[in-house]
Structure formats: C-alpha cells, structure tokens
Amino acid sequence: MARSAIVPGSETAAPGRVRTFLRTADGVAIDALYERGAAERATAPVFVIAHGFTGDLDRPHVRRVARAFARYGAVVTFSFRGHGASGGRSTVGDREVLDLAAAVTWARGFGHARVVTAGFSMGGSVVLRHAALYGGAGRPAGATEPRGRAEARTDAVVSVSAPARWYYRGTAPMRRLHWLVMRPEGRLVSRYGLRTRIHHREWDPVPLSPVEAVPRIAPAPLLIVHGDRDGYFPLDHPRMLAAAAGDHAELWIEAGMGHAENAAAEELLDRIARWAVAQAG
C-alpha cells in the first residue's frame, strides 16, 4: 500500500498539482507527482506513466509524455527506485512492480475510478508484469496475493518498446546495457554518468517475464506499441507479446519509430491517449 507525506486534497498542495514521496510495500521512498490534467469529465482516467531505464519524472522526454496525456486526463509520473530523487537501487524491472503499485494506489486516492498504466522500455515490461500480478486473471502457481492488490489494479495497459524476454543481448545497445548492470565498473558508470543506482545482486528468483505475464492480464485491455526502427529490441519481441496475449491485445507497429519515450511522436502519444480513454473510460 502506498503511503505519502502529502494526502490528496491537502492545503499544502498547489492547485491541481501534488508532489510527494510514496512508500512501497518493501519500504522504498518513491518520488511522485500528480497533475490534474485538462479533461474535466468525471469519467476521465488518470494516466500513470512508467519511464524507461535511466529516466526519471523530471526528464524532458517524460515531461513531454505527461503533457500529451494531460490533455485527456490526470497524470501521475514517478521515478523508479534507484532513479532521480527516489530511494533504493534499480533492479531493472523486478521490484519496480512495487513502485508502480504504489503509484497506482496513490492515483486512486485522488478519486479516479479508472487508471491507465503506460510504460516505456523497462517501464513497458513493468506495466505488463504489474497488470498480471495486480488484477489479472491469474498469477504464477504458488504466488501469494500481492499486498493492496485491489487498490493497485489497472483498468487498461499500454506497453511501448518493451522486451518480451529477459537477458536479451542480440543488439549492441542491449549488450552495453548488460555491461552496465552486470559489471561493477558498469554500475559505477551508471551511478555517476547516468544518475541511476543499480543493485549489485542478480535476480533470485528470476521474475515472471513479460511474455509469461501477458496471458494473465485479461480482461484488462492491452495495447502493445513498437517501432520498426527500434535499436534495442527487434520486432520479434512485440510479436511474441501479442501472440501470447491472444485476442485481448492490440499491436501497433509504428513505421520509422525508434525506441521508447524519445522516439514517440506527438501524434502517436495523442493516439495512445485516445485509445486509453476509449478502453478505460
């Protein structure tokens, strides 16, 4: 369950804008920002944006996505653990599910009945796993009920530029990323050069992969978006995700698009937001 130093509606908040630290189920402080948005309809959803690896809520590309979505509803942005002003260390998509769960729970506390999670790259894998674990049709065999599952559930999911499987090293950017994560000198470069603090421990156990998660997301609507010029993950990744999701997912292959938030055109962000409003509304 998310806990914050500032509660929704507090007189200490600027009109329509609240920034505070949330507390995840495992005790990590997460920097989060709520913005009311331009849509005045009571049924308008709140968008919870999950950024990519080395991003944070103050990065220009994250702010650009937030501005685009704010035309259609309220927006929550946050920095994953190990990123920006948030505490902890990055686990590169594993325990980040708890960060997203805290942000979604907080978003619902502002009175929004419908929540859309939208993730990019690493964040794209997190929204898939989060949707499967918090409110999906099923969970891995032997898994325990996630804490605060009902409050942290999502009503629609958008995954942009996400991997389908873990440990992919088939492209030069992903080989560089693995060096950053797996090597002590790489983690130093990440900490001081990219402002991202990475946990030194390897996954144990290995978390549910995105392609294993997507069949468990239904009945929540799912949109998978990927560029045909993505330099990190080739097109077999989104196609694997869509095939695993079955009939409940839509797949958009975007001509000329590269990777994640930086590559998402304004027109695409507008189209994603309109899809989300129609599905979650």
TrEMBL record:
GO terms for molecular function: carboxylic ester hydrolase activity. Pfam families: Abhydrolase_6. Keywords: Hydrolase. InterPro entries: AB_hydrolase_1, AB_hydrolase_fold, FrsA_esterase. Residues 48-268 form the AB hydrolase-1 domain. SUPFAM superfamilies: alpha/beta-Hydrolases. Belongs to the AB hydrolase superfamily. FUS2 hydrolase family. This is Alpha/beta hydrolase. It comes from Streptomyces naganishii JCM 4654.
